[in-house]
Design brief:
The protein is α/β, with parallel strands linked by helices. The chain has helices spanning 28-37, 63-66, 77-81, 94-100, 114-125, 139-148, 159-170, 175-181, 202-210, 223-232, 242-249; strands at residues 13-17, 41-48, 54-56, 61-62, 68-71, 92-93, 106-110, 132-135, 187-190, 193-194, 197-198, 214-217, 236-239. The chain has 11 helices and 13 strands.
Length: 252
């Protein structure tokens, strides 16, 4: 469990996955539309340019979204910013997003080791500690980032912790062991299933929530699934269609 103002909400959280799919994901335009639709958080990704600018972008290369077969890490920020994305808009830096959207809360996935320092530096400079969650599939990157902050930030677990919790629940371990494994973790952000592992059983959900840790499921785009997971106890829904999630979970 992690007590942090980032998590203080009494309703099921709606996390807009990369903002919205259209216009291009992870752009200011997509973020603004998601917030206007009623999303509570903006889930996004951090990579870093050749000249150490933290950019909100998921893929390693620009091929899918810009038609350019180059890595972001090999371009300067000026070069990257000058590219036109196929769905509209241009690349957005973390600095731009925090500045342009001063009330927004961001869920940041650090996609590579170079982005640990660049992301932390931007958050520190903007004093945005209360409105960001910083995490990574890599526990090493996650922990490296957390150690650099002068003020604690919210965090979710890495993949290794999720597997550990699943094993503890499957083995019917005492709740105290689960609580200990989730110490200083604000949320598990997980799919419903991964290979043969199921993370949506009543026992798994109850055990995690009993520790005081939230559960956010991704990427959920069906209203039926949103409602089902909410009834099971999900704390948050990560979705490509925040407007549909709002209609389903807030106006049903």
């Amino acid at each position: 469990m992690q007590e942090h103002p980032y998590f203080q909400t009494k309703k099921v959280s709606i996390l807009a996955h990369r903002g919205q799919s259209a216009p291009t994901e992870n752009t200011l335009e997509a973020f603004r539309l998601a917030l206007a639709a009623g999303a509570d958080y903006l889930e996004t990704d951090v990579r870093t340019t050749k000249d150490q600018i933290a950019v909100l972008f998921h893929d390693k290369t620009l091929k899918r979204l810009a038609g350019v077969d180059k890595n972001i890490a090999d371009l300067s920020w000026a070069e990257a910013k000058g590219l036109k994305l196929e769905g509209g808009g241009t690349l957005t830096s973390l600095e731009e997003a925090l500045t342009a959207l001063p009330q927004a809360r961001f869920n940041l996935d650090l996609k590579d080791s170079r982005s640990v320092k660049t992301a932390v530096n931007v958050i520190e400079t903007n004093k945005a500690h209360s409105r960001v969650l910083v995490s990574s599939f890599s526990n090493g990157r996650r922990e490296a980032a957390l150690k650099l902050f002068t003020v604690p930030v919210a965090t979710s677990s890495s993949a290794s912790t999720v597997i550990k919790i699943w094993l503890l629940v499957a083995l019917r371990a005492p709740q105290s062991l689960i609580n200990n494994a989730l110490q200083n973790i604000g949320a598990l952000q997980i799919p419903r299933t991964q290979s043969f592992l199921h993370f949506d059983s009543k026992r798994f959900i109850h055990s995690v929530l009993a520790s005081g840790t939230q559960i956010h499921y991704w990427t959920i785009n069906s209203p039926e699934e949103m409602l089902e997971l909410t009834r099971l106890g999900a704390s948050g829904i990560v979705t490509d269609v925040p407007e549909l999630a709002v209609q389903t979970l807030r106006k049903a």
